[in-house]
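pinned: reference chain
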Amino acid sequence: MTVLYVTREDGLLGRRGEAFVYGTRDGRGAPIPSADVESVVVVGDGSLSTPALHMLFEKNIPVHYISRNGWYLGATLAARERVRTWRRLQDALVRDPETVLRVASGFVAGKLLNQWSTLRRFARRHSERSAPLRVAAEELASLARSTGTAESVDELRGIEGRGAAVYFAVFGDMLNPPWFFRDRNRRPPRDPVNALLSFGYAMLLTHVVTALVVFGLEPTVGFLHPEHRGRPSLALDLMEEFRPLLVDRLVVGLLNQGIFTPEQFVRDSEDGGVTIEPKARRRFIREFEKRLGLKGSVAGEERILTYRERIPRQVRALAESLAERKEYLPFTVV
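pinned: its structure tokens
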């Protein structure tokens, strides 16, 4: 299955029979069979024709919208019958404090453990920079253990927040010059590293929302992130464990390999935010899609899955934990 990215500012996704066609507003490209399309991601000011939008509804293909500075704006979804059953269950479970705490602790623990493994992995490969990374990793491990004894979701959020502070305090130690990272900032991101992180997280979110929609879960009803004005709260919950593995490691690797240059990032004269120029943005999309094809294993599993396969697998694991009122086990790489 293919994710279609509409990245050109003058790009137009149209329809020809049972196929999509993508090109500029002045011309048409080659047809893309609708059966091959998993989702559509519109970045910036690209457009969809009304006939194309109708076919997306008919085929139940989600359309995601990301701003030029990497902010996830929302999604267009077809009406779905299956979601009504899950919506009723989710609405009931989010009113049960014990269930909310149990499920949310899995999300936070997964994120902390994958942050821990990311720092440990870099420290092993770069002993000259390992000291602060190892100290931070040990604190993250301690915080992950504490999620099991948290007595409220607010306490869990505090643990997650402390973990983010510890992790991002040493994130810059993994970067080679000329790249730097002082703190995590967004809306808008104010440096190239944050611009890539924000854009990567938005892209990851599109995959998680799509996986939830395909399975039938309601993306807006979350546990760690409360429901709020149509925000994809459950997708934000589930993507926590994948952030360090799919986005953070990718950003550090691409920058340290010299894939990008500082000149490929543009500062907005009005809000001071930094955006990625179109050519570099398309390169990042290609690299992100390649990373989704990497395999990550879990002890005891018969088949090693790619990250592209892993996300739907975790959706199913989450659904089973909700339906059976049992602990949610996140995907972690140690």
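why pinned: The chain has a mean pLDDT of 88. The two ends are 29 Å apart (CA to CA).
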